[in-house]
Amino acid sequence: MTVSRRVALFLLAFGVWSYLLWPTFVRNIWHSDRSWAAGSPTPYLLVHLVIAVVSLVLGTIIGVIGWRAYRATRR
Known about the structure:
It is a single chain. By secondary structure, the protein is mainly alpha-helical. The protein has one domain (5-73). Helices cover 76% and strands 5% of the residues. The chain contains two helices and two strands, in the order αββα. Strands 1-2 form a two-stranded antiparallel ribbon. The longest helix is centred in the last third of the chain and has 31 residues, at 43-73.
């Protein structure tokens, strides 16, 4: 499968965007009033942490694919 340079850069940008977006989201959710009840995490916090972790993993995979495709177009 051949990926164009434009698509490779888009995938790479998506991976970078994930690392800019999701840590801020996690920080905001962590400090939310709905995230903690009597010192323990609520389902609200747990669900959003799972969403963030899955998104970071997918962002990493997509970014790596983009990076490899970009490097392949430079040859």
